[in-house]
Amino acid sequence: MSGLMGQVLLVAVLAVPAAGAAVVAALRHDRAARLVGTVAAGLTLVAALPLVVGGDDAGAGTDPSPAVRPWHQVDLPWVPGLDLRFHLGVDGISWPLVVLTALLTLLCCGYTLWKVPSGGSGRALVALLLVVEVGILGTFLALDLVLFFVFFEVVLLPMYAIIVGWGGPDRYRAARKFALYTLFGSVLLLVGVLVVVTAAGTADIVALTGGTGLSRGPQLAAFTLLALAFAVKSPLWPLHSWLPDAHTQAPTVGSVILAGVLLKMGTYGLIRVAVGVAPEGAEWAAPVLGVLAVAAILVGSLVCLAQTELKRLIAYSSVGHMGFVLLGVATLTGTGLRAALIGNIAHGIITGLLFFLAGAIKDRAHTGDLADLSGLRETAPRLAGLLGFAAVASLGLPGLAGFWGEAFAVVAAVRVGGPLWLTLAVLAALGGALTAAYLLRLLRQVTHGRASSAVAQVGPGVARAELLTWAPLVLLTLAVGLAPILVLGVAQVPVDALLAGRP
Amino acid sequence: MSMVQIVDNVALLPAYLAAGTAVLVLLADLLVARARVTVSAAALGALATATGAIFVGGGGERRTFCVGADCSYVFGGRAALVAVLVALLTLGVLGLSGPLLRAGATPVGEYCFLLAASMTGGVALGAAGDLITLIVALETLTLPLYVLVGLRRGNLASIEAAVTFFVVSVVATTLTLLGAALLYASTGALHLGRLGVLFAEQPELLDIPLTTVAVALVVVGLTVKVAAVPFHAWAPTTYDGAPLPVAAYLSTVSKLGGVVALLAVVQHALPARITGPVLALLAVLTMTVGNLVALRQRRTVRLLAWSSVAQAGYILAPLGALALAAGRTADARAAAYAAAVAYTVFFVLLELAAFAAVVALRPAGADGGTLDELRGAARRRPWAAVGLALALVGLAGLPPGLAGLFAKVTVVRSLLDGGAGWLALVVAVNAVLGLAYYLRVVAGLWSTDRPAAVPTDPAAVRGPTAANPVVAATDPAAVATGPAVVPADPTAVLVRAKPVAVVLAAATVVALVVGFAPQLVLDLAAR
Fold this sequence. Notes:
The complex is a heterodimer of chains A (503) and B (527).
Chain A: H1 3-26, H2 30-48, E1 72-79, E2 84-90, H3 95-114, H4 122-141, H5 145-154, H6 156-166, H7 171-200, H8 205-208, H9 216-233, H10 242-249, H11 252-277, H12 279-305, H13 310-331, H14 334-365, H15 376-379, H16 381-394, H17 402-416, H18 418-447, H19 453-456, H20 464-482, H21 485-500
Helix pairs in contact in A: 1-2, 1-4, 2-3, 2-4, 3-4, 3-11, 3-14, 3-20, 4-5, 4-6, 4-11, 5-7, 6-7, 7-9, 7-10, 9-11, 9-12, 10-11, 10-13, 11-12, 11-13, 11-14, 12-13, 12-18, 13-14, 13-17, 13-18, 14-16, 14-17, 14-20, 14-21, 16-18, 17-18
Chain B: H1 9-31, H2 35-57, E1 62-67, E2 70-75, H3 77-96, H4 98-102, H5 108-125, H6 131-149, H7 156-187, H8 192-201, H9 209-226, H10 234-241, H11 244-269, H12 272-294, H13 300-320, H14 330-361, H15 377-380, H16 382-396, H17 402-417, H18 421-445, H19 469-474, H20 476-481, H21 490-516, H22 519-526
Antiparallel strand pairs in B: 1-2
């Protein structure tokens, strides 16, 4: 694929959903608007997929080579006074996340075509979903630190509006908590980014990666600020408390986007920006990060064991799963980072599916209380089967997507060696067992037993729209589980390059 | 030295045009005595002033009223920017004044004259080259406002507001004057440039306690005009008691004037070693107190007033970098001044848009009301609500209000350039506090919980307007949901609402444009 074509596609990945959002907002007819939005989301996915074509990791091995080698890039000046350039690029670290984002947004828009959650108009919801998509994709594609920050911020208010407009009964409090926590994170990101930019005199991620041009002092300061910022977004224990409320109160499509891709902005930022730009800082802070990650795994799993609400349980499970991802990052090894990347993707697919299913169950049974949900297998066997599949995938059964990220995060920690990391590895493995415990408890309570009164009224049918939405996620869970090379193949070279500069 | 001075009348052209506007308005009111003509004269004058300032400012710096190398009137890039902004903001405020003037409690001629007179002060202020010109220009800007705040007949709140404002402001001016006098006593200079040179050449001047006191007095006196904590207490009372357009003027032009005056003395005259720590402390206090108190506000204008106190903190913050040696290098200083100016430009734009939206959302001639009265307003006036949301989100510094986002980035950037990372963190954390109350207002606009049936509530409309059902009914907001009285001529409603809508649309569009192209503002601010 020619360079120009790649550039056109890169810009299209952002321009199509942005234009789609504008058209959807301008259209008066609700259903037509939702259809247009879904088409725009589909076109975005179509533009994102071929980015991998022509993605040769040229320059690998030739020394000295930049630590980031984008397959395609666009670099235009925007605000010279603030060192801000409109610099986009895609490589093996960002491409899987870009595709995941485009896919999940398409599924959410399609789902909204079929069913609009109560609250506002479906048209506005689709427009907001597309704006969120622009922000997330921009974050994954940005190769300029200030641009990265701008896109990071774009996501905040539309997501707030989605929770407030279409959320559950306690939506105002949950949405406010989400907005304030996230903004707290992103203002730290702003200061961290500008610390780097002032110290290095450039905001170009390609030039900055590897820590060249930054002395130790600024690196430590920058990494502390950036890691805190991304820890809020990921979220890392103990900064996670916005997550359960926001996920529980958000409408189904909001929860899917939140858990599926929004959290990944944090882990991606940690890998690309924090570790990439301030490797010395990362080295310095890695033990703390590792301890917090394992604490997140254990706390998340233990809290899940005590949850009584379906969506809240799935929400808290994200804390544990993201703990594995962060543990992988904290090891600062190739295995660990690759585990983190595949863990990211797997969590996005599986938790997206789990939230879709939880939404479907809550819509049918009108309750999310685990005590009132039993015997789903009796009345809705297909729904119960899918939930079982998703839960088993989530607990990390080998052969399904969830396995690779968690197993190799532990392996990476063992390989780092030393008493600290061995202890962390053992504790993380224990957390994996706890994960299995709470997911099996969930399955026992929801699918088995006698049908409760709430479940008894649930019909066995699953709408075709629902099946269409869920099928890609089920297939991807299997595909990534059986052939992890799908994600790891493209990530191999960029991860090695990212770590090449390390002593 | 020759006693005959050559006066550069071209440099003075913008000030002539502004003063001419005031005279023209007076004559129009006297001779034609029709409200429309008077307002049009003022608007045309403001436009002419802006055009004149662009014209003169485009031709490089012009100096006049010089004694040797020191000039009392220096019309350069900064002065042109200030003059254009003041003139355009005055034009905007005039556009917002329609509903107030039609309500009948405010005399049109006096109102427009005072506004034009105040504009004259603002235009001259940016060019002031010595302390006396600076203080006189600032007072010319402020003096008409005492009257404007209390101009509504039979309105007690207005008069209270005017008295508060008057007393505080006069005390502030006295302090500044005293400071200027003491400075003259210790240095023998009044020209800003000369003072700067003296302090640089004779550092021993700073060892005299009198000098420190003088510098502190000048700075403190000027921060009162910016409404910086702890000299802020007049702002909420005054803004809330004043008619909405006057409150808009106070929080944009008047604040801009205070910032310009403060920048002039800090940049050119006073030693940064003394002003830096004072300004850093004031900035931290102003941001934090402003944001914390704004969290608890229940009245719209009071919330905006406290938020504008907090915003003054962000404006002062870059100057706080002067407290450290790293912030006093030539580059860091230039960045700090440019950042303060840039932030001010972004801020006044968003603030004008916010006030324009509040005027559009409220019944004609009413005050700002409470936040509850704005609940669900998006269903009645979706576009005005979108305008208010964009402005407030911009003030909070988040996309889609990119103008506000880049304003914050500029400030944090300049602070880090000056090595004041701790102050950058304070600014950043304050942005989170700010979002909490801006979000409450914005979310309330679309709230469906408990639609507030307030537009017809007589208590919401102060003064004689409430007794006049025709006026209340001609307001589009009231027509949509309110009383059964249908206006005789529907087009009249449109015509009447138009200037407000135009101002709101123009401010929003300009804010969006500079949001996508912030370099325009950064270039202007660095001149």
